[in-house]
Amino acid sequence: MEQRNRRMLRARDRMDRTFAEPLDIPALASVAGCSEAHFIRTFGAVFGETPHRYLQRRRVERAMHLLREGRSVTDVCFAKGASGFTAGFTTSNCQKVYENLKAKGVDITQEPVTHFYGTDIGIRDPFGNHLRIVQLADPPRQG
Predict the structure, then answer these.
(1) N or C: which end of the chain has fewer CB within 10 A?
(2) What is the DSSP string of the chain?
(3) Are 92 and 69 within 8 A, CB to CB?
(4) pLDDT tens column, 41-86
(5) What is the pLDDT of residue 79?
(6) pTM, to two decimals
């Protein structure tokens, strides 16, 4: 079990280093020393999400970080190129944004889904860029 987890951590570390590149399951499976199908199943069992979902989340987190630094959405998108990067935005009411966008005919790629970090939706702009809109969860109270 410990050996399996170490192999999965090595693969996840590689994903973190190459998050802006397209997801390469064969290469990650090789890093983990297993078949592609086994890698996907085991990654999900160890980390609680598929490799694809993990990479999407990391991309959203990176985009949010760049936006918080004051970079414009356009700058963030161009900085990542057309490699399938997902830009992210935050909102205080994800459900309301979803309903408004749906009513306007926006291409919704993922309806609202709640995760440990909050609720998010996916949309595609007219240029084919994937965008995420996230309502961050309230941090747990300490004390």
Answers:
(1) C
(2) -HHHHHHHHHHHHHHHHTTTSPP-HHHHHHHHTS-HHHHHHHHHHHHSS-HHHHHHHHHHHHHHHHHHTT--HHHHHHHHTTSS-EEEEE-S-HHHHHHHHHHTT-EEEEEEEEETTEEEEEEE-TTS-EEEEEEEPPPPP--
(3) no
(4) 999 999 999 999 898 888 888 878 887 888 766 566 656 544 454 5
(5) 60
(6) 0.55
